[in-house]
Amino acid sequence: MTRISLKDIFSLASDVVSLATERDLTIATAESCTGGLIGAAITSIPGSSAPFKGGIIAYDNAVKANQLDVPEAIIETHGAVSEEVAEAMAQGVLTALETDLAISVTGIAGPGGGSEEKPIGTVWIGLAQKSQPAKAALFNFGDIGRNKVRDVTCYEALKALKAALSQAQ
Question: Residue 92: inside a domain, yes or no?
Fold first, then answer.
């Protein structure tokens, strides 16, 4: 995997803010393993207050259930790091903050918490848009270190948000 720099992250965040502003679309984030890094990157861009409505840091499963309306049964059945939870988180923040698009991340940054089925570096990134079912993509970054997993997750989430905004009408 190529090295991701803060410049790369902020460049993508700038693109996200520009595209959302040009298209008059609002965005929100639901973050678990990144702990607010995506929202921080977006809000570092001047003018981000126009498209960015906010985010929910849902590190604990109770926050996922109570603030993002992720059914506890989904968490119990599939685990917090799963396609189903990432999709529900994205849909939950889209609904809660009444935005046009929302991105979510849930993963295992390490150094602990991994398993054979879900090793360190496993991340799901969810995307929700009005009038479309939420979808999620799986990433396996490997055990590259906690902060690198978080940075690469932030980068990939911004990349996904940029792609969705580029296609939005």
Answer: yes
**How many other CB atoms are found less than 10 A from the CB of residue 123?**
26
Q: How far apart are the first and last CA of the chain?
A: 32
User: How many domains is the chain built from?
Assistant: 1
Q: The whole model's pTM is what?
A: 0.96
Quick count: other Cβ atoms within 10 Å of Cβ 83? Answer: 16
**Angular region, 142: left φ>0, alpha ψ -120 to 50, beta rest:** left
- Using only C-alpha atoms, what is the Rg of the chain? 15
Note the pLDDT of residue 71: 98
- Is the residue at 1 inside a domain? no
Confirm whether 47 is domain-assigned. yes
Range 43-58 burial, b when 16+ CB lie within 10 A, else e:
bebeebeebbbebbbb
The amino acid that residue 116 corresponds to is E
Structural domain of 36: 6-167
